[in-house]
Amino acid sequence: MFFLDQIWLIPLLPAFGATLMFFFGKKLQKQTVSAVCVGTVALAFVLSCGAVWQYVHNYSASQPFEKVMYTWLGSDTGHLNYTTHDGYPAEFKAQVGFLLDPLSSIWLLFVTGVGMLIHIYSTGYMAHEGGYYRFFGYLNLFMFSMLTLILANNYAQLFVGWEGVGLCSYLLIGFYFHRKSASDAANKAFIVNRIGDAGFLLGMFTIAWHLGSVRFTDVTTMARSGHFHVGDPVLTAAALLLFVGACGKSAQLPLYVWLPDAMEGPTPVSALIHAATMVTAGVYMVARSNAIFVLAPNAMKTVAIVGALTAIFAASIGLVQNDIKRVLAYSTVSQLGYMFLALGVGAFAAGVFHVFTHAFFKALLFLGAGSVIHALSGEQDMRNMGDLARRTPTTYMTMLIATLAIAGIPLFAGFFSKDEILWQAWHSAEGSPYLWLIGFGTALMTAFYMFRLMFLTFHGQPRMSHEVEHHIHESPKSMTVPLIILAFFSIFSGWLSWPQSLGGNDRLMKFVEPVFANEAHVIQEQGKSALLAAGAKEKEPTSSTEYGLMFLSVAAAVVGGGLAFRSYARADKGYAEPIEATAKPVYTVLYNKWFIDEAYDYVFTGRRRLGKVRLGVLGLGDASTWFDVHVVDGLVNGTGWTTRTLATLSKWWDTWIIDGIGVNGPAILARILSYPFRLFEWGLVQWYALVMVAGLLGFVFYYAYR
Amino acid sequence: MAPITTIHYLVVAAALFVLGVIGVLTRRNVVIVLMSVELILNAVNLNLVAFSRIWGLHGQVFAIFVITDAAAEAAVGLGILIAFFRNKETVNVDEIDLLKW
Asked: Which chain A positions have a beta carbon within 8 Å of B101's beta carbon?
């Protein structure tokens, strides 16, 4: 059991690489940096494969492997004791622990696998860029955080990883920090994620307060114990708060705005963090919390509706964007919406399956886009591309496979997972035809914008400048080999879960299903009545419906692709956008991303004014400035004015009343009254003597002659 | 020739006294004023001595006291005068009016 016992090595290896880059990266040569950073991730991949292999062979799927290293928060000292909502004594305790079950196994495999391929690709893509060691240090740090996140055995440790990937995302979006747009985008991603993180933290504390633990196994056991009834309001609140966190990290409405801007980062980063791995952390967290979500049908409904709306909303924007990476970014948001739709209708396994397949084909699309950008000396605008199929054949072929996969063409990976989601959206107890319809519309749009991207990039007339055209070249081996491997998985990862309706055995979904065992259990035991009461109709899944829906979604993909072919296959300079030609206002709205950024600027950031008034953060700033200037400063100035006035009054009193009447008054009075007597003293001594003599004579005469 | 009686002494003493008073009241020079004060004192002494012929030696003893007093007075008065002269360069009594209101 070497691999399972040493599971802690998996996140630690990239952490080692990151530390090395942090301290010595600047002094190391590029080859050394590549060797260390790719090496650690490759080794982590090998260890992951070993661990999953040993887990599968030694444990039953419903029995997680858990290894606790030490207690990190809280201990036997009891400092963090509290009483739960129901009055049970509990202790807030978080461990550094590793939990391996089918859910984390799947994430572990594709995160390390795709991560390793993208690391290899980056050695080629970033070869001529400055900050090479910095880039790889961040990437390794990201791998560490992501692996911490998915191997955590409690919410607190998951949150550490959660914040870690957020930080790395920030650092890597702002990798070209000298470009203002990049550092703005990094800030935007970080700040929008903070909103979600606040929700996550509150959700975690609500769980601790309500269930008495943040450890996944305890939480799941408690939630499944039957102690809590379906629709428990506190659990609903906890689930919704966790979902707020997921909305931030996984770019769902209304917090998706950071992800398109995140394309300012280097393309491998977009592939690794903003397509394949980090943005699926929200899906992972919700799937991990399935025991809670199942007990909160309203939260589930919210997840499904938000997911479906995000899917179609982002896809609609993707239809008309011209930046190749932005199309892919909106596509990612849209696909994440699919995943949440699946989670929301209770089809956790289908959602996880889509995460798995999506990781491959979306990483491939981004890396392919990176290869295109590389070939075109940094050009990202599809209006200036075209006719690359002959000149970059490997990129073209691999991207074509990924496009077929994401569009949902049968036999390619995306078909299986997306079809499963659509089917579950239609027939599962929580699903509804409306959700399916939204998903179906999204599938149509997805096919359209993906083939639009392909035709504009690889077909039609070359529209780039001659100088750029002259430099077009296929990417080096370090970049094309990962593309080929990912293309392989973009086909065959879906085959791991070949559906039963098509004669397969749903292998991958069966593998993860035990993690969500309670779903069926709860719905059978108590949930079904609750869900029925909530208005959900019981539907008999019939194979004919399933085949029908399958046919429809394939048809949607073909129609979407066909429309794109008609409009763009022969695109020359100044080609027409079909949406613009038929409905100009719709095009304007979509092209400006539904004006959501502008609306946020009006409402939340306050960068734009509504008339004269600002709202949002800057509005709050204005308001507090006003408060500061008028109320606080007013109070200060008022106090000062009062003091000065009182001092003036007091000075006047002192001068005129105390000094004047009290002190000088008696003196003046004495002076005035004494004035007549002073006149006697005129200063001639002999006059005094004469007066004395006269007085003496007076007395003498008086006594002599009386 | 009629014998010299007390009345004679008294007349001389009164004359001396009046001379002294006139001196004190009229002269400007403080030294002369002081000398005039001596005249007044000696007029009194003459009275005392004259009456001691009738009532015994008490008057003479008292006169000696007055002489002593006069000496002391002259000494103090002249001392003050010298100190004053050093400040004001004058010994005129009508210029000595510092304590005037």
From this structure: 678-679, 681-682
- The answer to whether the CB atoms of B93 and A683 lie below 8 A apart is no
DSSP, residue by residue, A449-478 = HHHHHHHHHHSS---S-HHHHHH--PPPHH
Give the residue from chain B lying closest to A693, CA to CA. B21
Q: Is B26–A686 a contact, with Cβ atoms under 8 angstroms apart? A: yes
Residues in chain B: 101
DSSP structural state of residue A92: -
Any long-range contacts for A453-456 (C-beta under 8 Å, 24+ apart)?
Answer: A453/A324, A453/A327, A453/A328, A453/A382, A453/A403, A454/A399, A454/A400, A454/A403, A454/A564, A455/A564, A455/A565, A455/A568, A455/A569, A455/A571, A456/A382, A456/A383, A456/A385, A456/A386, A456/A568, A456/A571
Question: Is A339 or A224 the better-scoring residue by pLDDT?
Answer: A339
CATH value at residue B32: 1.10.287.3510
A290 Cβ contact list (under 8 Å, min separation 6): A343, A348, A515, A516, A518, A519
Confidence of residue A529 (pLDDT cuts 50, 70, 90): very low
pLDDT one-digit tens code per residue, A89-142: 888 888 889 999 899 999 999 999 999 999 999 998 888 888 889 999 999 999
Sort out which chain B residues have CB atoms less than 8 A from A689's CB and list them.
24-25
Number of cross-chain residue pairs from A and B with Cβ atoms under 8 Å apart: 28
Check B25 against A686: CB less than 8 A apart.
yes
The residue of chain B nearest to residue A677, with distances taken between CA atoms, is B101
Higher pLDDT, A520 or B80: B80
For A208, residues 6+ apart whose C-beta sits below 8 A from its C-beta are A90, A92, A155, A214
Q: Between residues 57 and 96 of chain B, which touch chain A (CB distance below 8 Å)?
A: 93-94, 96
Dihedral class, residue A683 (left if φ above 0, else alpha if ψ from -120 to 50, else beta):
left
Q: CB–CB of B94 and A684 under 8 A?
A: yes
Query: Residue A536: pLDDT band by 50, 70, 90 thresholds?
Result: very low
pLDDT at residue A530 is higher than 80: no
A684·B97 Cβ contact <8 A: yes
**B69 within domain boundaries:** yes
Best probe of the A interface among B18, B22, B24, by most A CBs < 10 A, is: B24
Residue B80 lies in a domain: yes
Q: Is the pLDDT score of A696 beyond 60?
A: yes
CA A269, A271, A276, A281 dihedral sign is positive
Q: Is B87 part of any domain? A: yes
- Write out pLDDT tens, residues A637-662: 999 999 999 999 999 999 999 998 88
State the Cα angle at A39 between A33 and A40, rounded to 5°: 100
Is pLDDT above 50 for A532? no
Name the pTM for this structure.
0.78
Over residues A186-216, the pLDDT tens digits come to 999 999 999 999 999 999 999 988 888 888 9
Residue of B nearest to A689 (CA): B25
Interface of A to B at Cβ within 8 Å reads: 678-679, 681-686, 689-690, 693
Rounded to whole angstroms, the Cα distance separating A476 from A176 reads 23
For residue B59, tell me if it sits in a domain. Answer: yes
Cis peptide before B3 (omega within 30 of 0): no
Please give the residue range of the domain that contains residue B70. Answer: 28-91
Residue A431 and residue A439 in contact, taking contact as beta carbons nearer than 8 Å: no
Identify the H or E element spanning A66.
strand A65-73
Chain A residues near residue B31 by CB distance under 8 angstroms: none
Task: Please report the pLDDT score of residue A158 as a whole number.
Answer: 94
**Are residues B93 and A686, on separate chains, in Cβ contact within 8 Å?**
yes
Q: Number of folded domains in chain B?
A: 1
Alpha helices in A126-232 (DSSP H): 132-151, 155-173, 180-211, 216-224
